[in-house]
Design brief:
Elements: E1 2-10, E2 16-20, E3 27-30, H1 33-51, E4 67-73, H2 75-81, H3 88-95, H4 99-106, H5 114-132
Parallel strand pairs: 1-4
Antiparallel strand pairs: 1-2, 2-3
Helix pairs in contact: 3-4
Length: about 140
Amino acid sequence: MERVNVLISRADDGFYTLYCEDSPLLFGSGETVEQAMDELKETLRIYREEIGKDEAFVYPEWMDRPYEFNVRWDVRALLEYYMGIITPTALGRISGIHPKQLWSYLHGKTRPRKKQVEKIESSLHKLGEELCKLSFSGK
C-alpha cells in the first residue's frame, strides 16, 4: 500500500490545513483536523473522478492505487491541538525543553530547530509507549 505524506499545520486564522507533501495542490482545510481531513479526501475524490489525468496538473500515480496517509504534524499545530492535554510545562518536564521556549513555539513566536523537533517527538513517543504499558488494579 502506498503511503502518502500529509502535513498538518495551523494558520493564524485558526484553521487547520493538511497538505499532500508530494502534491502541494492537493490539500484540505477546516476548523478541526477532522474537517480538514474530510476536505482533503473530497479534494482527492473530485480530482480523481472529475478532473483526472487530462488536465495540465501533474497527476500523482498513487491516486490510482490503494494508499493511506502518513500524517505528520507541524509542532505549532500539534501543541495547539493538544493544548488542554499537553501543556508547555508538562511537555517541558518530559522533553527537557524550557516551558517558555515551548510557549514560544505554541504561539508562533519562534520555530523549533530540527533537534528540538526531534526531542519533542521522541519525548511524546516515549510517553505514549509508557502509557500503553499501564495497567491498573481493581482495588
